[in-house]
Specification:
With 170 residues, the protein is of the alpha/beta class. The chain has 7 helices and 5 strands. A 5-stranded parallel sheet has the order 2-1-3-4-5, with helices on both faces.
């Protein structure tokens, strides 16, 4: 069974680019999409229309945008990390924000990685190839491998996790 990535993003253009980049990268993981934080929580709880776990499995990784309607990425991150069933699922913030306070807040709330959305399509393809490699290489926990990805601001800037250090969904 291939790994599952849940992408939470309200920007349809970004979602379409991510789908294309995954295809172009020949990524072996299965990507599920929800359009905002409220839907992300419903997905994780397995509430309708996400109640069929064969179609909507628990993800191995969550790519989470920050700025969304109804529930922000910060709110979803806090909910995930407060929930014993989901707190060990690695969460990579995947956003266009490079605000240092956003990085610090995300990491302090338990994000495993903070990735700035690449500005060009080729870099997005490379990032999806690297994420695919992380998900296939199970010699280290996903959360540790994510922090070592080039472009992971949280790792590069030395921000410390308060809740998720050492957690793994492997």
């Amino acid at each position: 069974m291939s790994a599952v990535v849940l992408n939470v993003d309200d920007n349809l253009d970004d979602v379409l680019l991510l789908k294309r980049a995954c295809h172009k990268a020949d990524a072996k993981f299965d990507v599920k999409f929800v359009e905002d934080g409220e839907f992300a929580i419903e997905y994780m709880k397995g509430h309708a229309p996400y109640n069929d776990r064969s179609k909507h499995p628990i993800p191995n990784l969550i790519l989470l945008d920050l700025n969304m309607p109804r529930k922000t990425g910060f709110e979803v991150l806090e909910w995930l990390k407060a929930n014993a069933e989901f707190r060990k699922i690695p969460v990579a913030i995947f956003t266009s924000s490079t605000n240092t306070n956003d990085i610090r807040d995300a990491v302090s709330r338990g994000a495993d990685c903070y990735l700035e959305k690449p500005l060009n399509y080729e870099n997005l393809i490379v990032l999806m190839e690297r994420i695919d490699s992380v998900l296939r290489n199970r010699t280290v926990p996903i959360s540790i491998a994510l922090a070592e990805l080039p472009g992971c601001c949280a790792a590069a800037d030395g921000f410390q996790r308060s809740q998720s250090k050492g957690n793994s969904a492997d």
